[in-house]
Write a structure and sequence with these properties.
Blueprint: H1 3-35, H2 41-78, H3 86-113, H4 121-144, H5 147-177
Length: 178
């Protein structure tokens, strides 16, 4: 397959993988909150969240993750010189973190399918931001391809993470007042 087709398909499946990861954690949050409701709302909402999660997880997110990894590997095979570039080593480190994040989501998915919420909705909101940070890091690394820019990007990511944490705290306070 032509390099540009591989690259285009890789980008498309990265986008669908991230979309699935972002949305699945939102469903985890809603599912966790549903488990705190009185009956019959608890059962009705929990069953609905379980069904929505199952479809998203197995029809979109897992296939997108697998196809992304296959296409990314194909790109590296077609461009082996990339593996000699330091930015690619850092990028692949973030890919490993993303795969671990995905597997962590799978664990949460399995627990919630059993009707058990190990994490609070607030903990899941914070957890949801990890994918955002990985996305920012990977995009900047791929576009800039420069370790010095990576240092500035890291400082920017840390600043962004702090802003996100403040926003989550403010959101929690606003929700508590309602």
């Amino acid at each position: 397959m032509d390099y540009l087709y591989l690259k285009a398909l890789h980008i498309i499946f990265v986008v669908t993988w991230f979309a699935g990861l972002f949305y699945i954690v939102r469903l985890f949050i809603y599912h966790t909150e549903a488990l705190e409701k009185p009956e019959p709302d608890r059962t009705i909402l929990s069953n609905q969240m379980a069904e929505m999660s199952k479809k998203l997880w197995y029809i979109i997110t897992w296939p997108s993750a697998a196809i992304t990894v296959i296409l990314g590997t194909s790109l590296l095979i077609s461009q082996p010189a990339w593996l000699k570039m330091p930015f690619m080593h850092v990028k692949l480190g973030f890919v490993v973190l993303l795969i671990l994040y995905h597997l962590g989501c799978h664990g949460i998915y399995l627990q919630l399918q059993k009707g058990k919420a190990k994490y609070s909705s607030m903990q899941l909101r914070v957890f949801n931001e990890a994918a955002t940070l990985i996305l920012f890091a990977v995009v900047f690394l791929i576009v800039l391809k420069n370790e010095l820019s990576w240092i500035w990007g890291t400082m920017g990511l840390i600043s962004f993470a702090i802003v996100l944490m403040i926003a989550v705290k403010l959101y929690k306070r606003i929700r508590a007042k309602k």
